[in-house]
């Protein structure tokens, strides 16, 4: 709440723009105006982008054969009370393990919140080379979250796994293999209090492996 008692809302979404940062190997984002007001009486834009462009959610089908697709994810799975874990002063490619998460949560892997947002501040590098040199979650950290019943893990980084070609998607496999959801490329998490109401609803893409979201926090 602000000083007047009114709720505060924070948009945690990166804007979609032509040429915006994308994960290595993903389609580039191109947005073109194909109809204009002067010529056509209305404005319409074409979008060329990948299903994991900008702020988005990974469905299990992203890396798990037979996993749920994004149109099979119920809206209420991506809405609710969220714990914001502030993890300041992390360094390039620093490993975040289960013990570190437990200390930030002040809890062991039992009765954890269903939604956890990792506030590392790495979104400050959005558009710079260092953005892809973000910290990474260990498989132990992913298992810690699964054991605690966490359904959604969001972060202000490009991925819970490393971006080097030699890196595997082991953390993705642990989380998505347990039918959890991952939200990547959030922004502004470090400005949030420890507990918020969170919503991040994806486009309903039939058979989709993920979907772009508009992520919002209320507090």
UniProtKB/TrEMBL annotation:
GO terms for molecular function: arylformamidase activity. Gene3D superfamilies: Putative cyclase. Signal peptide: none annotated. GO terms for biological process: L-tryptophan catabolic process to kynurenine. SUPFAM superfamilies: Putative cyclase. InterPro entries: KFase/CYL (IPR007325), KFase_sf (IPR037175). Pfam families: Cyclase. PANTHER family: CYCLASE-LIKE PROTEIN 2 (PTHR31118). This is Cyclase family protein. It comes from Corynebacterium variabile (strain DSM 44702 / CIP 107183 / JCM 12073 / NCIMB 30131) (Corynebacterium mooreparkense). The lineage of its organism: Bacteria, Bacillati, Actinomycetota, Actinomycetes, Mycobacteriales.
């Amino acid at each position: 709440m602000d000083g007047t008692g009114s709720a505060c809302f924070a948009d945690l979404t990166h804007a979609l723009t032509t040429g915006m940062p994308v994960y290595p190997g993903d389609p580039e984002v191109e947005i073109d105006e194909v109809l204009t007001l002067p010529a056509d009486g209305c404005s319409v834009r074409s979008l060329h982008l990948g299903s994991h462009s900008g702020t988005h959610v990974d469905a299990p089908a992203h890396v798990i054969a037979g996993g749920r697709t994004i149109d099979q994810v119920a809206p209420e799975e991506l809405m609710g009370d969220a714990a914001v874990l502030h993890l300041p002063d992390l360094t390039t490619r620093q490993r975040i393990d289960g013990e570190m998460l437990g200390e930030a949560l002040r809890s062991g892997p039992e009765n954890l919140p269903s939604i956890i947002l990792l506030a590392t501040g790495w979104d400050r590098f959005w558009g710079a080379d260092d953005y892809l040199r973000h910290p990474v979650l260990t498989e132990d950290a992913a298992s810690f979250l699964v054991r605690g019943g966490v359904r959604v893990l969001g972060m202000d980084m490009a991925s819970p796994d490393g971006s080097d070609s030699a890196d595997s998607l082991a953390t993705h496999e642990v989380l998505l293999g347990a039918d959890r959801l991952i939200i990547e490329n959030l922004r502004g998490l470090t400005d949030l209090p420890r507990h918020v109401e969170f919503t991040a609803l994806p486009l309903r893409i039939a058979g989709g492996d993920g979907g772009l979201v508009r992520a919002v926090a209320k507090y």
